[in-house]
Amino acid sequence: MRRPLAAGTAALLLAAAATPMAEAQQTQAQAQAQPIPLHPDNPAVADQWVNPAVRPGEGETAQVRLQSSPAVLGAHDPLRVALLVTNTSDEPLQGLTVTPRRGPATGSVMDQRVAAVANPLEYQVVGSEVGVDTRLEPGESTELELTITEDALPLPGISTYPIMFVLSAVNGALLDTERFHISIRGTPDNAQPAGMTALFPVTAPVDIVPGETGIAPGEPPLILASEGLAEQLAPGGRLSSLIDVYADATSQPAVAESTCLALDPALIQTVDRMAGGYTVADERPDLVEPPRRLRDSWGGAKDNASGEPGRGAADAQAWLDRVTALAATQCVVALPWANTDLNAVARTGDVWLMREAVERGPATLKEILETESLTNTVVPGAGYVVPGVPAALGWADHSRSTIDDEGMQGSWERAQGTGPTHRSGPADPGNATALDRGDVPSIADSAAPEPARPVQVLVASGTVTHPEEHRFSWAAPGVMAVEYQDSLATVLATVGEHPETTGYSAEEPRYDYTRDSPKARSVNAASAVHLAAQSAWTYPPASPAPERAPARQEPAPILLNPPATWDASSAGDIMAAVRDVMATGAARPMSLGEYLAVPDGTAVPAADAVGSPHSDPTIFSDTEILTASQQSRFINDLSGLLVADPAIALSRYGFTLPLRRDLLTALTVSGRRAYTYYPLAEEATRQRLAGSRDTLNALRSAIALIPPGNVYTRTSPASPLVIVARNGLPLPVDTTIRYHGPEGAKLNVPPTLRIPAYGSITISMTADLPEEPGGTDLRLFLATPQGGQISEPADITVRTSGAALRGWVILAALAVFLALMLLFTVGRRRRQSPPPDSPPHRSRP
């Protein structure tokens, strides 16, 4: 009989997760975004990352780490392991001991998670103590090779067992533990195996320097921030080794049938561009060249773009050729573009970002790899979707997508004719550029029409509530949620250098997964594959079923969804486990398409709620979403401002498309879910959004109103005001002039303006302005036809010289009048005075 490890511990840890269905709607709302990104050590989120009560103090003085171990054993085989013991203290250590322990057979993958946090005393089968004979100075390590026989540590039956190695001090105090599971190979004669299918994700950070814009024909010159991607593509690099693992695993037909290559279209497109040559630089050349006087350009050499030629073009082509050959004969499915977080993208409220995230992928893979991929299928990197997002995932209905024929440009152009347009005139109060707006759009703004063919979204179990026992439910009209085992995905997510915390897993068993070595976590994940197969077995009712197995006819199928950031070593262990369960009949091969298909006669209910029932510290913060939404709205405004010119091959959507991709890359899930990598992932998001904003500000400055001066003095109210409108972009722009002024002010401006590419026009306008002391202050800016401000405002003051002249005339007339009065007075006095030579007049007494 198999019983769960530490039943009391499991009950305690899972009490919070056992929520009645009646409370499901409230439970689904627990994953909430923070106002700003918070470091994992911040008290507001620290407990969401790591349960402080789990394995406290381990590894502070010394560590024991697994170097090698099998994930599966045959019956009665000895367990051979290599351990590395390291002194992590500041003092020498000696007299250390290592003791192997085993717990009871694990009944489920959820119990496997519990075993990783259980008290060592729960591992009640104790093997022989092994002494560490070497005195270890601070920082020193020594390796132990152990062979543990069945007599020393029995592993009976076809089961999966938790294994622990306890490192103790000379006084017996526990210093550290190393934990993983070992499976015993085999399949009972009367067991009915479940179908098993696996995703094989392939993605990597694409560090294109932000601020790229489109050109035509072809792609703009590729500028990467580093050779990091080239190193992964080179022989022995992560991406190259992952393809080695995949090619080796799928050489077995059963594994090939049950494995689907999940490719990041952003990675595939970037590697394709790398093969044609690229540059490595910290920044890209100025997008908008400031205007120069003619004489300043005489004899001057052009500025050369900084950077060095990339060295990975040949490796990129070789890797792409291998992927193309494998994709031609295997199942392929597209991940979201740049493995972006679909919940975060939907929160920006931007339809075109969402469409680029989920609609373009299959077309990109088809164009570059020349093969069809699975369509109408979405693999969210977060493992769940929040309320409102399922409706937006309707854009993944590739049955009605026209990208293959006309790109996204055609759909975008048709959408532009549906909105209201505005002419030049007074600006609305509070009008500001999209980059300065403080409101966040609604998720509902990104919703799609109901799909013509159902879209299927893979999500973890427990993140969708519905009344049926099976894995299917309608998350939105035409959008079906298809669940996979949450505990299995959570264990798989812990592999690699930076293990991930899934936002849909129960908080209590969360801990710093790096307390166990990468090899221990990899072996543990491989054992989880065996355990998932074992725990899914069913037995015919006519046969006496073992006590540990439920009597059911159809075993629930299993989907393996490893983390997109896994490394080749972990992938090798997990795929070896898949190959083993297929070879031994512990599971039967199942294609991804079969897993997604609703069995005949199965009623699919509407979901009651969607979202993680647990806290998720990896969610993008409100500040990050606001920044992304500001930029996406400005990109939309800028795209709408541009004009398609038959003489220019570049389309207006194509010009701004790389800017949208910058935002998708900034919102990637990759690295975001790792406790040890989150700060770096958050910084990468911040830097990319900052670089993108710098580019958008440069583009905004390229479209400007340039007044001759800040003060206009006109000779009369009918005199025209002259201003220059400049366009430094490679396409013409259709724009309007909007203005702010005092009450009663009116500018008579052209209804619309068309400014040629890389050109300018002079605008003459008249103004009806109230007379104010010192002149009338106006603020003018260029706006999109939809009314959105696009340029920086130009502040001017208008004075009318006629009014000034009238004032001088009055003053002059007054001065003349005063002068005449003075002359008249003086003349009169002179006439009344005696001549200067007359004798003085004497008065009589």
UniProtKB/TrEMBL annotation:
Organism's domain of life? Bacteria
User: Region (Disordered) spans which residues?
Assistant: 282-313, 401-451
| Basic and acidic residues bias (residue ranges) | 282-296
Keywords, A to Z, come to: Membrane, Signal, Transmembrane, Transmembrane helix
Transmembrane residues, as ranges?
805-826
Which stretch is the leader sequence?
Answer: 1-24
Q: What's this protein's name?
A: Secreted protein
Per the UniProt entry, what species is this protein from, by scientific name?
A: Corynebacterium qintianiae
